[in-house]
Amino acid sequence: MMKIRLAITAVILLSICGTLTAKETENNYMDNLKLTQAWDKKFPKSDKVNHRKVTFINRFGIELAADIYEPEGMSGKLSALAVAGPFGAVKEQVSGRYAQAMAERGFVTMAFDPSFTGESGGEPRNTASPDINTEDFSAAIDYLATLPEVDADRIGIIGICGWGGMALNATAIDTRIKGTVTSTMYNMSEQMHNGYQFAPVSAADLLKTKIAINAQRTADALAGKPEYVGGFPKERPVDVPQFMLDYWDFYMSPERGYIDRAPACSTGWTKTTPLAFINTPLDTFIEDIITPVLLIHGEKAHSRYFSEEAFIRLKGDNKHLMIIPGANHTDLYDNLDVIPYDEIEQFFKSNMKSLASFKIC
Q1: pTM here?
Q2: What is the DSSP letter of 359?
Q3: Which of the chain's ends, N or C, has fewer CB atoms near its CB within 10 Å?
Q4: Are 295 and 340 in contact (CB under 8 A)?
Q5: Ordered per-residue pLDDT tens for the chain, 361 residues
């Protein structure tokens, strides 16, 4: 009983604080984003959908930029999907492609730039954070739920690559999410803490990494600005694993994925980005998920084990693992021969329903 009283007190205090500070901070956090109005996507515009650009604010006060795609000639209230990813990409590359394809299939969709990236606000630029980027999904649902054409009880999310891990984390806490699809998922916390499955990080090496990143924090404080790492070079690298060549071929090809405001195509990420992921496991509570999850991965993807591990940990009969024969990690970015849009459509149309209809495991 004491714990319940404390919890209620905490909620009341948070509510009061929020009420007192909302008007004070509202104008301070608006970034007044300047959005590109020209069609600069890495995919052609569909004549089956209507498109517009919008902005919304997450609970950290960061203004996010997004593209809304709606079926041409729609009527009534429709299911909606929020889409983000890959890690290092922007909405003009992959998430927008998925969002437009799903709008063609009858959904109201949103592809958004996560905090600190692309056209969205937030400083420093090109950084990532497991809590803030998980919140970005929930803030996108806040916005979608207010649209008169959206059925707020039928909203799902799609997380691609590193935003697949963020999507599962969001689903574990946000009960408004009625269905989740991850495509070619990365668990960024596991990768940054443990390394890849085929080259795990030792405790000694992890300590060295922490020391180096914290030293970088000091250097950034002295310099008054962050240093960056990880953007792809202009020339195709040699003597690197095949999956790195696959990334380069996507991100640095003008025909496929190059756009200068994407972190992977420009500066990369702040050097201190890994710290929060190392210490904040994204998958801690995915066993709590009771709504349906579809995990999609390429058979030949170096990252395939992330989806297989998540599939094992998800409970009950709410989970589905789909392995695409012969596909690598980046094939699920833009290869229309392997991205299973029809299966994604069927998954959402069959599974998004009232929370009360799902069994607690």
Answers
A1: 0.90
A2: P
A3: N
A4: no
A5: 444 433 333 332 333 333 333 333 333 444 479 899 999 999 999 999 999 999 999 999 999 999 999 999 999 999 999 999 999 999 999 999 999 999 999 999 999 999 999 999 999 999 999 999 999 999 999 999 999 999 999 999 999 999 999 999 999 999 999 999 999 999 999 999 999 998 899 999 999 999 999 999 999 999 999 999 999 999 999 999 999 999 999 999 999 999 999 999 999 999 999 999 999 999 999 999 999 999 999 999 999 999 999 999 999 788 999 999 999 999 999 999 999 999 999 999 999 876 656 666 5
